[in-house]
Amino acid sequence: MTKPDRRALSSAARLYAVQALFQMEAAGQSADRVMREFRTYRIGAEEEEGTQPEADETLFTRIVDDAVMWQSRIDRATDRGLVAKWPIDRIDPVLRALFRAAGAELSTPKTPAKVVITEYVRLAESFFPEGREPKFVNAVLDHVARDLRPDAFPA
Predict the structure, then answer these.
(1) Which one of 9, 41, 73, 137 is least enclosed by Cβ atoms within 10 Å?
(2) Calpha distance 119→33 (Å, rounded)
(3) What is the pLDDT along the chain (155 residues), one digit of tens a residue?
(4) Which are the contacts of 131, defined by CB distance < 8 A and separation ≥ 6?
(5) Number of structural domains found in the chain
(6) How far is the C-alpha of 29 from the C-alpha of 6, rounded, in Å?
(7) What is the CATH number of the domain that holds 29?
(8) What is the pTM of this model?
(9) Residue 154 domain-assigned?
(10) Where is the NusB/RsmB/TIM44 domain (predicted)?
(11) What are phi and psi of 3, to 5 degrees?
């Protein structure tokens, strides 16, 4: 088996972060508990169906921690990107977790905004392969990125 490349590790970290944020909300569990579970039982774990992908655990931790720390700011930015009649608390919980993970990455300049948007649109495509959600995610994240990182989009 070949060692996963950096991009694959980052993509897996983002997927796990979205799943962790979803689980935290759905089960009412703390970030520490969910991250510990993911490190122990999911990231790179051997299962009957095969091995779960390895992930950049530093990125995974940073996304989840930043999503929790900046949730209010991220949710407000996401609300501004959504139609006024559909605040973030009324959208699909998977999309909510995805927006929070993306918002966490957009809250810091470590990854270029356009890369963040592209990565999370890809994730939306994997979660919703037949739906219109990926286009919706692209549009909302474009607004969120311009709100949280206006310097990344020169006029």
Answers:
(1) 41
(2) 26
(3) 456 699 999 999 999 999 999 999 999 999 999 999 999 999 988 887 888 889 999 999 999 999 999 999 999 999 998 876 677 778 899 999 999 999 999 999 899 999 999 999 999 999 999 989 999 999 999 999 999 998 888 76
(4) none
(5) 1
(6) 29
(7) 1.10.940.10
(8) 0.91
(9) no
(10) 12-146
(11) -70, 135
